[in-house]
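Appendix B. Chain record.
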Amino acid sequence: MKRLAAVLVFLVACSSAAQQQPSTGVSTNVVGADSPRQAVQQFLAAAHAQDLKAMALIWGTNDGPARDVVDHSQLEKREMIMECYVTHDSYAVLSEVSGEKGSRVLSVTLTKGRLARESKFTAVKGRGDRWFIQDVELPPLKDLCAAS
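Structure tokens predicted for this chain:
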């Protein structure tokens, strides 16, 4: 009977912990995205969920995800800064144009409360034809970070 009670407590704890984990829509087995727009969507979903591991899978360069190319001592710090700047209640991708060296530049409006700010997200194609967010124009988003 004690063993059954212990198993039940364990299962309830596991179930409760699983429910508290935010879903970002980003698989930890897949890096990058199928398209530049999807890269923005996944990046913002990961930031909104405060999921730094998921952010490290979609943020990167032509060489791959940040988790593989950024020094681990700096990775979390940089992600936390970006997370603050891209925090949002909603967003809209306004446009997508060609950038330098095959990159794509997406204009995105982020809204938090009554504040709405537009910024540029640069997506690059990495290995395996996967898209990564290489750069986010942070200065226009300063107010969003300050409002957090």
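Further analysis of this model is presented in Appendix C.
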